[in-house]
Design goal:
heterodimer; A: Aconitase, domain 3; five-stranded parallel beta sheet; B: alpha/beta; seven-stranded mixed beta sheet; 7 strands; 16% strand
Chain lengths: 468, 200
């Protein structure tokens, strides 16, 4: 009888190409995802004289640099931006990599597109030149972000040199309260463990509150693993996962589906498997969360007040809070509920899926936006589905802009940024200084909380606005 | 990739935790050419909106001119996977980063570009940060073969580095050329996987 193993351990073992004596492993990459920012990696591949080893294992879609106000790529006025957006399709044509280009309904944010197309599957190893690749772990895959040189390496060799990370289990038990989403869960986790809390670890999220989350909620939780410093985040596959995957374009079908399902059922961590670290939270204690500072760890319940620097345990922490509040233009002791905002962004690989848009629409319905607000769906397919459900009408009737799929204002490299000094309620993943534009103040929230902020013009406890 | 053996340079103290790669190079510099990226290093901390330098930012103080080492608090280089965060530092003369911990992807990107992310205990990092503020322009040296960092106080600390990464850095060896020597193993894995996971 072999030792009980974690899910991470099982997937790792099944992908070892070579184990070197020095502790390094050449790990096979099952599926590789690319985006318009992967331009540099393709160029480097040419420079080093290599070809794509397994083009059928790579899938690309432009997302970072695409405009979300139009699908007319030719109209992009910036030459460099247009080059980056159009190069994805060109690199696909040159190398045989499958690309969903602008205009294809499957185009969208890489971490939305992968699961949506059935490219992301349980038990796979997956990488992408983007830190939020941890998203795909929600289906029980081992997925992590890499740099541009490593993208070139994967294109050339379909493998990657890795030292085995440590494992960590985060258990959230109990029932989440009314109006609480996956976003609130992950923000509460990061607030508890810190932005460096899981450095060097692969997280497995477990517990009844995690199991009860929809696929969309799980994707949101795993997406922000990197904001806690983790190498990857994963959730064991179960019936929720299988129902989500079944029938998608690149998922196995027929007899192959049965064979795959049989293998996937052996993936979850064995009883008695041990983790290097454990952390637990009570699901019932989690409130709608809002970040107040400039790191995702600076998160607090909507019912809290902006922290007092004097309450910090040491000088370094006190200075950190002072610096963050100076940038954010906030006064210690102010109740978070009621702080005025200037703008709302609903979108990003964290929160642009159909369920996110439904949750936002539920709050917006019959109300008007008090500040300029955008909804940017995660893919062309989600856009179509939302329109079929009439969600676009709810947003537009409220005066909220309904846009095309892309990363948009989460990172702003396509030029879609806020103005200096603006305070943005954002469903994205990073509240870093200048992330959404120079001098912009970002506050991370769930789609429902962003919608509540949009219709009231202030941070508002969404539980007061939701129909019971 | 340029081999890394030893390095001695003026060290800049960045006494903050969680310095993310968006600070090291803001998003708007990611799509431009590498030459144009050079001015993006710590752009918004270093410069006002009109491009004039902020005199209070430590990298702008004359004593730190020509610096080639950064000392920072925990979780340096966290956040976005942008490799430009390493290459922009390299192109501005930096090859060594010292902190109690690093963002995983930033550290990997260092190895791909001939840079050393050296982890030292928090207490020693805090000591170095103090020295560098008290003695602006002081130098730190690193010897990769012996895995040591020598501070301006003459005190030497050793740091851990995987022997795989150390060998590649010392030789200036690119990962791809190394991996191609394992081509048979990759092919063997692929045929094994084809049999066991036929549905993929």
């Amino acid at each position: 009888m072999s030792q009980p193993a974690t899910m991470f351990e099982k997937i790792w073992r099944r992908h070892v190409v070579v184990d070197r004596q020095d502790g390094y492993t050449l790990l096979y990459v099952d599926r590789h995802i690319l985006h318009d920012g992967s331009f540099f990696a393709f160029e480097r591949l040419k420079q080093v004289g290599q070809k794509v080893r397994r083009p059928e294992r790579s899938f690309g879609t432009p997302d970072h640099y695409v405009p979300t106000d139009t699908r007319n790529v030719a109209a992009i006025s910036d030459d460099r931006q247009r080059l980056l957006v159009t190069s994805m399709a060109r690199h696909g044509a040159e190398t045989g990599v499958t690309v969903f280009d602008v205009g294809d309904r499957r185009q969208g944010i890489v971490h939305v597109m992968g699961p949506e197309q059935g490219i992301t599957l349980p038990g796979l190893t997956m990488v992408c030149g983007d830190s939020h690749t941890s998203t795909h772990g929600a289906l029980g895959a081992l997925a992590f972000g890499i740099g541009s040189s490593e993208v070139t390496h994967v294109l050339a060799t379909q493998s990657l040199w890795q030292r085995k990370p440590k494992s960590m289990r985060i258990t959230v038990d109990g029932q989440l309260g009314f109006g609480i989403t996956g976003k609130d869960v992950i923000l509460a986790i990061i607030a508890k463990m810190g932005a460096a809390g899981a450095v060097g670890h692969v997280i497995e999220y477990a517990g009844s509150a995690i199991r009860a989350l929809s696929m969309e909620g799980r994707l949101t939780v795993c997406n922000m693993s990197i904001e806690g410093g983790a190498k990857a985040g994963m959730i064991a596959p179960d019936d929720t996962t299988y129902e989500y995957v079944r029938g998608r374009q690149f998922a196995p079908k027929g007899a192959a589906w049965d064979a795959a399902l049989n293998q996937w059922r052996s993936l979850p961590s064995d009883d008695g498997a041990t983790f290097d670290r454990e952390l637990s939270l009570a699901g019932a204690d989690i409130a709608p969360m809002v970040t107040w500072g400039t790191s995702p760890e600076d998160a607090a319940p909507i019912t809290a007040r902006i922290p007092e620097p004097s309450s910090a345990p040491d000088i370094a922490k006190r200075e950190g809070i002072e610096r963050a509040l100076a940038y954010q233009g906030l006064t210690p002791g102010t109740p978070i509920d009621g702080i005025k905002i200037d703008r709302v962004f609903i979108g990003s690989c964290t929160n642009s899926r159909i369920e996110d848009l439904r949750e936002a629409a539920k709050v917006v319905k019959g109300r008007k936006a008090a500040v300029p607000s955008w909804v940017v769906p995660g893919s062309g397919i989600i856009k179509e589905q939302a329109e079929a459900e009439g969600l676009d009408r709810i947003f537009e009737d409220a005066g909220i802009e309904w846009r095309h799929a892309g990363c948009s204002m989460c990172i702003g490299v396509n030029g879609e940024t806020g103005k200096p000094g603006e305070r943005i309620a954002s469903t994205s993943n990073r509240n870093f200084v200048g992330r959404q534009g120079r001098g912009v103040r970002t506050h991370l929230v769930s789609p429902a909380m962003a919608a509540a902020a949009a219709v009231t013009g202030t941070f508002t406890d969404v539980r007061k606005l939701l129909p019971n | 990739m340029q081999p890394f053996t030893t390095w001695k340079a003026v060290a800049v103290p960045l006494g903050m935790p969680n310095i993310d790669t968006d600070q090291i190079i803001p998003g708007r510099y990611l799509g431009v050419t590498r030459e144009q990226q050079k001015e993006g290093m710590f752009r918004d901390m270093r410069c006002n909106e009109d491009g004039s330098p902020k005199p209070d930012f430590i990298m702008n103080k004359p004593a730190y001119n020509g610096a080639g080492v950064v000392v920072a608090e925990r979780n340096f280089g966290c956040g976005s996977s942008r490799e430009q965060a390493v290459t922009v530092m390299l192109d501005n003369g930096y090859r060594v980063f010292i902190a109690p911990s690093f963002g995983d992807i930033f550290a990997n990107n260092c190895y791909q570009n001939g840079c050393v992310p050296a982890v030292l205990p928090e207490a020693r990092v805090n000591e170095l940060l103090r020295f560098l503020l008290e003695l602006p322009g002081a130098e730190i040296s690193v010897d990769l073969a012996s895995q040591t960092v020598t501070g301006p106080d003459g005190k030497t600390d050793s740091f851990a580095i995987d022997s795989f990464r150390k060998d590649c850095l010392l030789k200036g060896q690119d990962d791809i050329s190394l991996t191609l020597s394992y081509d048979k193993d990759i092919a063997a894995f692929e045929s094994r996987q084809k049999a066991e996971v036929a549905w993929l």
